[in-house]
Design goal:
The complex is a heterodimer of chains A (525) and B (706). By secondary structure, chain A is α+β, with helices and mostly antiparallel strands. Chain A is built from ten helices and 20 strands. The longest helix of chain A is centred in the middle third of the chain and has 29 residues. With 706 residues, chain B is an alpha+beta fold. Chain B has 19 helices and 40 strands. In chain B, the strands form eleven sheets. In chain B, strands 13, 14, 15, 22, 27, 28, 36, 39 and 40 form a nine-stranded mixed β-sheet that branches. Chain B has a six-stranded mixed β-sheet with strand order 3-2-1-4-11-12, with helices on both faces. In chain B, strands 29, 30, 31, 32 and 33 form a five-stranded antiparallel β-sheet that branches. In chain B, helix 10 crosses helix 12. Classes of the chains: A alpha+beta (525), B alpha+beta (706). At the A-B interface, helix 1, helix 6, helix 7, helix 8 and helix 10 of A face helix 3, helix 7 and helix 12 of B.
């Protein structure tokens, strides 16, 4: 038997190796989206494709990277005869890799003494991968192809040399080619770091000890998660909520039946969820899994080391052809942002019934995506993308936080002084939307108001938000949070805009984005 | 005459003093007094009992503790004036949460309450153009409001003021006239860089600290005068330089990380080209690096923020944009607790038993700590510490560890060894963070291990990182205080450029630096620096257009040379550069430093002499004898020699061996050889590396382990 101290040391070295991969990607990345907003994740897997350690910065990568890795390996096996030493693979097909086209996955098989011992993999959000709109998330896409270039698994590195043709697939299909090449290079560097560390660990401790440590580490996480789930008790819990369709009606329903069993396992059954839609709100299964794992982790014990052991107690069933498990080629870009957020709300709502007092009231429930792009007076083109925080739901012991990223994302805002230097835009207001948090014993967080003016040239705006018609719910008598709203101010006159819309902008036009408040918790006294 | 350095820590306040006539070095330690921080400084000076103090420098935790909510250092009511429409920027921050999976996450408490955030009608554009002139009526109203609210300090935070500070200056003028006696911080003065949240936060932190730090320094100076110490005290800044008390009173944001910087400065006095300064105390372990002969700095940190595995968590504290010694810190020290988790695995930290109740061997607790593990293993004296003055209860250590041993099915010794292995693995992470993660190879570095517990773990950590050399300074327990004796006075003025490198001229850049240099020289001379000792270094923060991450590069004589320097630095850091891509210069920075006359008087050549220990010089008659102690090494007990630090033999000592002194214990691991350098520091070398080099196999019965 391997001694328990060495097991602990190896476990910790594996986790550190995945963190170091993440830092290597960040250090060598070109684009602000990865370098500053940290929209990337890195992980190590064993030879069977089981997650060993993961450093993720945003929850939506939590379950999708492991799901995507297995499907990617299957596809490589099926189409290309399997992996070889010295190669690295890249893909962004969401139906294989598990999120949306912007998230590019790069995988390195790792060999030690000529035997396959595992994989180093990274997923990073590339700001533009083609498609009909800058940023590759057109609000009016009716299929996947409008959203950008679809890349099946291709060799990115062959015999330890980068494959120029593969890199060209990304650069020639993107509005920002230099950044694509730079960010792919960063992902390659990250995987080499992961490989180097994994091989060092094998060389130092030997295959038997490392494998025993991985088994122990997976078992420990599973044991801890089962114990934490068992502590919630057993039972069947139902939850449902909806996204708003293009007409602003909450028709896109998510239906969940959660069963907690006495062996510490949990089954999430989405039977009853609405059919897939010809708009970019479909969430591939990897995204759905991320919402489940995010909510389970947040409600049970976030300190449990993240590895395959955390997935073992959990089964997820989603009927094919639905909003949460669409068939190709349904468009998916917004599934990653809006649908994943609503799914997290639903899972939390179900868990709240089992764990009262551990789940806050509903948060704003949208990432409030703003995509702007156009042409300056001098003819040069530009593109800008941001998401906006909203009100966090009140907690059983505290108010919700105001104007903050909730649940499935945690990316940073872009400084106003950076926006105004780099784009023909001026921010005219950036404040909390006072009074939008639901009242209660504890008040829901307030949403944000961000107003942006176009200063020159022509532009197109694409807005993708939710909770403009249905309010974020309060809990235990707490009031709901206020809805979000969009408006256009043109020549001093304010016109309301839909939650999901595309419109042209003229210089002097001001877009007003107000995000929803969070629900209150408990009755006001 | 005597020169004094006082390092005010969380638990103890340490003094290192150098008698300039006799060369004698004095070390003293008294308990810290967090509620009245100047008291400990005075206490330790009283203990020194010298009337000829010519120089006093101290590091202080007063700013950090105030931000952390220390009782007795309550932050004052702070007001702020923002551009209308942007009063919440200071609270929205970067809109991220500091812990992704924590549904109960909190934001740091805003330093300016919502009702104390006033706005004025004005707007400056990104190129410094006035879009809306400053509305005087709105300014008068804001000032009147602030006066009615009785604020003690005000921060002025207007958008794009880095590009044009005219509106901020006018606000400052009117505020100064309306609110006499109130501390005013202008964002464009304290941190003239773009990115509004970080600039506003730096200004607000500075405003909030100003009244507290001013009061503290006034009290300290006053009470020093009462003791007839009639001199300006100097304060260590976060960047490891000194500032006079008068200078720092208006920029207290520069001393938020004052505490941990001094040790790295002391390590830099060894004049090593590459070193890792490693400080391990009772509750935390910290590491900083020296590369290319200079202490590595970073430009932004989060005051009062938290860390995860040694890395700062974004959004957990108050951003402050001031250069600071780039340190990684982990919760691991002698008092760190060992425990068994839900899955039955042995874990160490992050919770610590601190100084009270302390490790089980102190006699009041039953919970095992890293110190208890070292006692069980025989590395720490099982009878008493602190030169025999602090008795300990080894049986209690053993009992505490036995209860863990039972749970995991190992022997008591194997469990103790496991605790040490695990805490070493945790600490190795911070060493990796400041080297590997910053693109540096630790194998090229020397480990300088200090703090009460650092020397005990030095060999293991060096081995873990592939390092072959470590140094234990003469007085590890007061090493940080010694750093205060060798530090320079520094200033770091900067100016925003935000220009396209290709579109600018070398003359424009030159003119900017000339302006900064005259500012810097004036400030250094005002602080008492000998003008002949002033050195200046010009750098830029630069990036490719479209990147949001700047890297520092050194100024060169032509635009082409700057472009090449940037390409080379980008390649060195990130592994590639992009020929032909547009380069932006974001800021110009001047790094100016100089020595105080008393310092150059005392230390004519090398700063190094300030860390010359007294013991090495004065111990004329030495008793080289040692005792033997049973030490658990690699699964068995071995009799290892135990030496006293002030009575070491002339010949090198091969590990395993233990060297005890008043303030620390050094463990020389098997395979390591320990010698003493001319100035009294212990130099530990991995013998395997020597063998490989000079092809001689030295044998002492242990050497083959490495």
């Amino acid at each position: 038997m391997t001694d328990p101290i060495t097991v602990e040391v190896v476990k910790s070295a594996l986790v550190y190796a995945s963190e170091e991969m993440g830092i290597a990607v960040r250090n060598s990345a070109y684009s602000p989206n990865i370098k500053e907003r940290l929209d990337h994740s890195c992980a190590l897997f064993d030879a069977r494709g089981r997650l060993v350690a993961q450093a993720e910065h945003i929850p939506v990568h939590l379950g999708s990277l492991p799901w995507g890795l297995r499907r990617m390996l299957d596809a490589i096996e099926r189409e290309c005869g399997g992996v070889r030493e010295g190669d690295m693979w890249v893909a962004n097909d969401p139906y294989i890799t598990g999120t949306h086209l912007n998230d590019v996955t790069v995988v390195r098989p790792v060999f030690f003494e000529r035997a396959l011992v595992g994989y180093a993999a990274s997923k990073a959000h590339h700001t533009d991968v083609g498609g009909t709109a800058p940023g590759s998330m057109p609000a009016d896409a009716s299929d996947l192809f409008a959203e950008g270039v679809v890349v099946p698994p291709l060799r990115l590195v062959c015999g330890d040399r980068p494959v120029a043709e593969t890199i060209a697939v990304f650069t020639s299909n993107s509005r920002t080619p230099a950044a694509r090449a730079g960010d792919l290079r960063a992902q390659i560097a990250g995987n080499y770091t992961g490989e180097r560390r994994l091989v060092e660990i094998y060389a130092r401790y030997g295959t038997a000890v490392v494998e025993a440590s991985i088994e122990r580490s997976l078992r420990d996480s599973e044991t801890r998660l089962r114990a934490a789930l068992r502590a919630l008790g057993t039972g069947v819990f139902h939850a449902t909520d909806a996204l708003e369709d293009r007409n602003g009606k909450p028709t896109l329903r998510i239906v969940l039946r959660l069963e907690l069993r006495n062996d510490g396992s949990a089954r999430f059954d989405y039977t009853g969820t609405c059919a897939q839609v010809p708009m970019p709100l479909n969430a591939v299964l990897g995204v759905t899994l991320s919402g489940v794992h995010y909510a389970v982790r947040a409600v049970t014990d976030p300190t449990i080391p993240m590895n395959d052991g955390c997935f073992a107690p959990i089964t997820v069933f989603v009927p094919e052809g639905t909003l949460l498990n669409p068939r190709r080629p349904a468009p998916v870009s917004g599934g990653n942002v809006e649908t994943s957020t609503r799914n997290a709300d639903v899972v939390l709502q179900a868990l709240a019934q089992a764990a009262p007092g551990r789940v806050p009231a509903q948060s704003g429930g949208t990432m409030s995506n703003v995509m702007l792009g156009g042409t300056r007076d001098d003819g040069s083109s530009w593109a800008f993308y941001e998401t906006n925080g909203c009100g966090m739901g009140a907690r059983p012991n505290a108010d919700g936080l105001d104007g903050i990223q909730c649940h499935m994302t945690n990316t940073l805002n872009t400084p106003i002084e950076a926006i105004e230097r780099e784009y023909p835009l001026r921010v005219v207001r950036y404040e909390f939307a006072r009074g939008t948090g639901g009242s209660g014993r504890y008040r829901g967080g307030e949403g944000l108001i961000r107003a942006i003016e176009l200063t020159e040239g022509n532009a197109q705006a694409s807005l993708l938000a939710d909770r403009h018609a249905t309010q974020p719910r309060g809990t235990r008598g707490g009031e709901p949070g206020a809805c979000g709203r969009h408006a256009l101010v043109r020549e001093g006159k304010e016109t309301p805009l839909p939650a999901k819309t595309t419109l042209p902008l003229h210089p002097g036009d001001v877009l007003v984005i107000q995000t929803p408040g969070g629900g209150g918790y408990g009755t006001s006294t | 005459m005597i020169r004094v350095g006082v390092d005010v820590g969380g638990t103890f306040t340490d003094l290192a003093a150098l008698d300039t006539e006799t060369g004698e070095c004095i070390a003293l330690k008294v308990p810290s007094t967090p509620r009245a921080p100047e008291q400990a400084v005075l206490d330790v000076l009283d203990a020194l009992a010298r009337s000829d103090v010519a120089f006093l420098a101290h590091s202080t935790t007063v700013a950090t503790n105030a931000l952390l909510g220390q009782v007795g250092l309550e932050l004052p009511r702070v007001g702020a004036i923002f551009t209308r429409g942007f009063a919440d920027v200071i609270e929205i921050g970067r809109q991220n949460r500091s812990e992704v999976y924590n549904l109960f996450v909190r934001r740091p408490r805003p330093l300016v309450a919502r009702e104390d955030r006033l706005t004025v009608v004005e707007r400056i554009g990104a190129r410094g153009e006035v879009l809306t002139p400053l509305d005087e009526a709105s300014l008068a109203r804001a000032c009147a409001e602030l006066r009615a609210r009785n604020v003690a300090a005000v921060a002025i935070c207007l958008l794009n003021s880095y590009a044009n500070d005219a509106h901020e200056r006018r606000v400052e003028e009117v505020l100064a006239a309306t609110l006499p006696g109130v501390a005013i911080t202008r964002s464009s003065a304290i941190d003239p860089q773009y990115r509004e949240y970080e600039r506003f936060s730096t200004a607000v932190v500075n405003a909030a600290l100003a009244p507290i730090v001013q009061r503290y320094l006034e009290r300290l100076t006053q009470r020093l005068r009462e003791r007839r110490v009639d001199m300006t005290p100097y304060v260590m800044r976060s960047d490891g330089g000194l500032s006079s008390a008068q200078t720092i009173a208006s920029v207290p944001a520069a001393i938020v990380e004052s505490g941990p910087a001094a040790g790295v400065i002391a390590a830099s006095a060894f004049a090593l080209p590459r070193a890792i300064a490693f400080d391990m105390g009772g509750t935390t372990a910290k590491a900083g690096t020296i590369a290319g002969g200079s202490v590595q700095l970073a430009n932004e940190f989060e005051a009062a923020g938290s860390t995860h595995s040694g890395r700062a968590i974004k959004g957990s504290g108050y951003p402050v944009r001031f250069p600071f010694v780039d340190l990684a810190e982990v919760s691991a020290g002698g008092g760190t607790l060992a425990w068994i988790d839900e899955a039955g695995s042995l874990r160490v930290g992050p919770v610590s038993a601190g100084a009270d109740p302390g490790p089980a061997c102190y006699g009041t607790s039953d919970r095992a700590t890293v110190t208890d593990a070292n006692v069980v293993l025989g590395r720490l004296n099982p009878v008493a510490l602190l030169g025999g003055s602090f008795p300990i209860d080894a049986a209690r250590s053993r009992a505490a560890i036995a209860s863990l041993a039972e749970a995991i099915g190992l022997s008591v010794e194997a469990t103790a060894a496991g605790i040490v292995t695990l805490v070493d693995a945790e600490m190795a992470k911070v060493l990796r963070i400041v080297t590997v993660e910053r693109g540096l190879d630790p194998r090229d570095f020397t480990l300088v291990a200090y703090g009460g517990s650092g020397p005990l773990h030095a060999c293991a950590l060096a081995s873990e990182l592939g390092m072959t050399r470590a140094i234990v300074p003469e007085r590890p327990g007061i090493f940080s205080a010694q750093g205060l004796l060798v530090a320079d006075v520094v200033v770091h003025p900067s100016a925003p450029l935000l220009c396209d490198l290709a579109a600018t001229s070398i003359d424009e850049l030159e003119a900017e630096f000339v302006r900064l240099e005259s500012l810097a020289r004036r400030s250094l001379i005002d602080q008492g620096v000998d003008p002949k000792t002033v050195t200046l270094r010009r750098t830029y923060d630069a990036r490719y257009a479209g990147q949001s991450f700047e890297i520092p590069i050194v100024h060169a004589d032509s635009i082409d040379a700057i472009e090449q320097a940037f390409g080379a630095e980008h390649r060195a850091r990130y592994g590639y550069d992009v020929a032909g891509e547009r380069i932006e210069l974001v800021n110009a920075r001047l790094h100016a430093r100089g020595k105080l006359p008393s310092a150059s008087l005392v230390i004519p050549s090398a700063a190094r002499s300030a860390v010359i220990p007294s013991a090495a010089r004065s111990a004329k008659s030495r008793d080289h004898s040692f005792t033997l102690r049973s030490v658990w090494i690699d699964g068995a007990y071995t009799d290892a020699p135990v030496y006293q630090r002030d009575a070491l033999p002339e010949t090198p000592i091969d590990g395993p061996a233990i060297i005890e002194q008043y303030d620390a214990t050094t463990y020389v691991a098997p395979g390591w050889r320990c010698s003493r350098d001319a100035e009294g520091a212990l130099v530990l070398r991995l013998r395997a590396a020597r063998c490989a080099q000079d092809d001689t196999v030295e044998s002492n019965g242990h050497g083959d382990r490495a």
